[in-house]
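Morning F.,

Quick status update on the modeling queue. The single chain you submitted on Monday has been processed. Sequence for confirmation:
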Amino acid sequence: MSTHKQNPVLIVGGSGTVGSLTARQLRRLQPELPITIGGRDVARAEAVARELGHADATRVDLTRPDLGQPEGRAYSAVVMFLKDDSLNSLRYAQALGVPYQGISTALFEVAPEVALHMARPQRSALLMNTTWLAGAATAGVLHFGREFKTLDSIAIGGVLDEQDVGGPAAYADLDRMTKSAANMLLLENGRWRWVNSTEGLRTFRDSSGQEVQGQAYSLQDIMGLAASTNARSVRSDIFIGTSAARRRGEPFSTEIILELEGTRHDGRPARARHELIHPAGQAPVTAVGVAVGVERLLGLAGGAPVAPGLYQPNGLIEPEYLLRRLQEAGLLIRGA
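Structure tokens below.
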């Protein structure tokens, strides 16, 4: 698809740690796509825009329904890298009739966004991408899950180095998501359960074989994967501490440990373990996931532009395509 006449993608928070990485990944994937870096600090946004080329910057005011944008300003999509408690950013995308992608709305916070979509279902495609590292874990499960005729159990273990939490927006998201909800959601033996901090503990092995204690972490992966696979048990856990790479004296890394159980196509019961590791941490993984989401929404990869509707990555993004793009950006995949 030619993009020479396309309106720019507005990346709100695009001068932050992950936002700027996403802008660079999007520029790598789509060299001709115009991009607008939005934020409160225009000087920082302009610096990122200059580096990207074919980009500009704008001041964004989330307290205003028009985000402080000039009348008549047009965008092709809105991407949010921080929690917008007003939801003015989503309303703005709906007013323009363009797709919207967010990565900061926790599972227990989805109701206002869903309600806003239901009130205007024909206005925008809404990609709810608050999944572990913007769809990376979900893509891994769906890809390797094809080795099974039926999947019975899915367990995701995220290893986040304590030095790799990210910038202020990412830290605020993590702090809110881990402290605001007293309980976490998981699917266990066919029943949805809210578990407390004690019930939600799970020990799993990281890439070095060391046991770490994870805590149930309710992101949208579990809902999407349960719907896509019909597994009877689905959970996602996070361990925050020292990554295996840093224990070896190397810079921090991030890991996604996937443990699958089910029945193979030949009828045999089986278990599989796969490790997705990025030696530069979580930010480049998230950046690729969001960039691929933008591509898909705009019809630049994977099919035609996405029609208005409510989406998660499992129903929109081809797992193999996302994994390939992640590997190009340095992701290592190991099976065990």
